[in-house]
Structure formats: structure tokens, C-alpha cells
Amino acid sequence: MNKEPIGTHGFSCFTAARPDRVWAVLTGDAETGSYLYGLVPSSSWQPGAAIHFRNAQISTAVSSLSGRVLHAQPPCRLSYVLQSGPDDPPVYLTWQVRSCSGGTAVHLRVDETEGADNDEQAEDTWLPVLAALQALLARDEPALPGGLGES
């Protein structure tokens, strides 16, 4: 049963990483837990495929969280639905990755069908995810000449 979203929130960040690297971080299981609240998804990332989650700290399945891939167009767009339990409202996430001058723009759209978060609640949940993703990708960037990391 498809429901129209009653709450839509959009977030964006920029990284110097290439789109294929951003895609690898969004769909890989090695680094995802570092930006997604310790949750590590596992999936074939094909439309219709299930997404299984485990806790990165203890390597056990998170049984109450389920997901399904809705759309995957590497390295540009990934959409999936998450649900905490069978009676909980679904949350639809769409990641859009676009090459731009000097790097990649990453956009996250969050659609909720019931019990939508207000803007502040959504920011409290999703801005830390984007900030952690951006920080993770920044570790790949070479130090700039004259920068703090240079000897």
C-alpha cells in the first residue's frame, strides 16, 4: 500500500570524493556503521532486494529494522524504505549523488507517511548522519599544501 508522504525533509552536503566512492560508502558494509548510528546494512542493492541490518559494535542482527531497495542507479541514486517494525510507519530515503565542480554533491530526501518528524526532529536525526558521512569521506582527501597535516 503506497501512501503519499506527509513529511518531507531534504539535506545536502559536499565532498571532494568522487561519486563512485560516495556510492561505495552508501552501499558497502565496511564503513556504513560509522555514519549511520552504528547500523550496517547488507543487501544486493538491486530493486526489490531486502536490506538486513546489523549493529556494527556487536555484529548482531537488528531484528526490528527492515528495509527494501526501491531504486538503484549507481552511482547516482539510491532509494529504499526502512521500517522499525511491522506496525510502524515506513520511512523512505533517497540518496542522490551528483558530480560537480571539485567533488560531489550528496542529497538526502527523507519522506515519512505517518507521524512525520517536525523540521527540528528531522534535523536532529539526519544532519548528524550527513556530517558523519562527510567526515568519513574527508579522510580520503589528500592534505592540502600548507595545511595542518603537513610536516
Task: Explain the overall architecture.
The chain is α+β, with helices and mostly antiparallel strands. It is 19% helix and 39% strand. The protein contains two helices and seven strands. The protein has helices at residues 19-27, 119-138; strands at residues 7-15, 39-42, 50-55, 61-73, 77-83, 91-100, 103-112. The chain has a seven-stranded antiparallel sheet, with helices on one face. It is globular and about 45 Å long. Mean pLDDT is 85; it is low at 143-151.
The main sheet comes to: 7 strands, antiparallel
Strand content: 35-45%
Helix content estimate: 10-25%
How do the strands line up in the largest sheet? 1-7-6-5-4-3-2
Shape: globular
Q: State the total count of DSSP E strands.
A: 7
Query: Which stretches are low in confidence, meaning pLDDT under 50 for 5 or more residues running?
Result: 143-151
Distance between the termini: 59 Å
What sequence of helices (H) and strands (E) makes up the elements?
EHEEEEEEH
Overall average pLDDT = 85
Count of alpha/pi helices: 2
How would you summarize this macromolecular structure in one to three sentences?
This protein has 151 residues and is of the alpha+beta class.
Task: Summarize this structure as a short list of keywords or feature phrases.
single chain, 151 residues, alpha+beta, 7-stranded antiparallel beta sheet, 2 helices, 39% strand, globular, disordered C terminus
